[in-house]
Amino acid sequence: MLDWIGKEEIVNQKHRNRRMSRQPVYVQQCMGINGLEKVILREVRGFSAEVYLYGGQVTSWKNDLGEELLFVSSKANFKPPNSIRGGIPISFPQFSNQGSLEQHGFARNRFWTLDPNPPPFPTNSTSRAFIDLILKNPEDDTKNWPHRYEFRLRVALGPGGDLMLTSRIRNTNTDGKSFTFTFAYHTYFCVTDISEVRIEGLETLDYLDNLKNRERFTEQGDAITFESEVDKLYLSTPTKIAIIDHERKRTFVLRKDGLPDAGVWNPWDKKVKTISDIRDDEYKHMLCFQSACVEKSITLKPGEEWKGRQEISAVPSSYCSGQLDPRKVLFSY
User: Fold this and answer.
1) Has 13 been labeled as part of a binding site?
2) 224-225 and 250-257 as β-strands: parallel, antiparallel, unpaired?
């Protein structure tokens, strides 16, 4: 028979176990599709994100209602060496197919490693839902891009559910050589109907039209809307841009640093039929926005580091509800 001290200890242990079970799990490592490793991030208000170590790729970002905010194709191929169609693929060390490497570079087709002890956030941040992924040059893969580098990617959920990606790329060459690259966060947003979406913040800017041999034009509309295939690269863009989904009454507010260019892409009904890993009708529900540094490439000397950052918020859209003026979104932060 237990004495009263023993009974009290058992009761106290049960209370401790209950408290521990109620503590949120901010970072969870597990297996995803086809046995690929992924990490799930959760913040206390209910937002979540999923990141695959293959490609260092965010494939899901859900709000506190469990609604998916990123588009991933129903035909996406989660089998290396194929890239994953959707989420946020990373283009490095080249954007598009303008160089000698595979289209959009190799970062999205490599296995990244998870840093078990990432540096903490600055003391003024309360975020605990974050990871650092690291990509380095394989010793046996220097033929196509013969440089040594360290690419550190931080994926984080802010206390309010904002999705933040920060890339730091360092030249670790020991032969004294510089290297040059271009870069993009290739973000696929999930939208209700692409024909009811508009982008504000890029009006009056110059862009290169990839459907017209990269000829340069100036945007004439008061916002970007969609009624046919679009493949444009906007130059010298502002740091804040609003993507407004009319039907969902939702605005994506995108903030970026170190990424002066902005790509906008939707294949529409004809081009989508030539893409094997997107269903023919899925173009209606996706918008690809690329926060990029493309027109002027980045050159790093040995020991130098470049940083590029993107932060996305999903807020009620005033364009429909009157709760938020999209133009104020662009300039009020």
Assistant:
1) no
2) unpaired
Q: Is position 85 annotated in a ligand binding site?
A: yes
- Total tally of structural domains belonging to the chain: 1
Instruction: Inform me whether the pLDDT recorded for 319 exceeds 50.
Output: no
- Tokens representing residue 275 in the block: 């893409």
The predicted model scores a pTM of: 0.87
- DSSP letter string, 310-332: EEEEEEE-HHHHSS--HHHHHH-
Cβ atoms < 10 Å from Cβ of 8: 11
Q: Is 103 annotated as a binding residue?
A: yes
Residue 112 and residue 153 in contact, taking contact as beta carbons nearer than 8 Å: yes
Using omega within 30 degrees of 0 as the cis cutoff, is the peptide bond preceding 146 cis?
A: no
DSSP letter for each residue of 219-283 = --SSSEE-SS-EEEEE-S--SEEEEEETTTTEEEEEEEES--EEEEEE-HHHHGGG-TTS-TTGG
Kindly state whether residue 12 falls inside one of the protein's structural domains.
Answer: no
- For residue range 274-287, list pLDDT tens digits in order: 999 999 999 999 99
Residue 78's domain spans which residues? 25-331
Pair of tokens at residue 173: 């060459």
CATH number at residue 94: 2.70.98.10
Q: What is the pLDDT of residues 148-201, one digit of tens each?
A: 999 999 999 998 899 999 999 999 999 999 999 999 999 999 999 999 999 999
Classify strands 197-200 and 224-225 as parallel, antiparallel or unpaired.
Answer: antiparallel
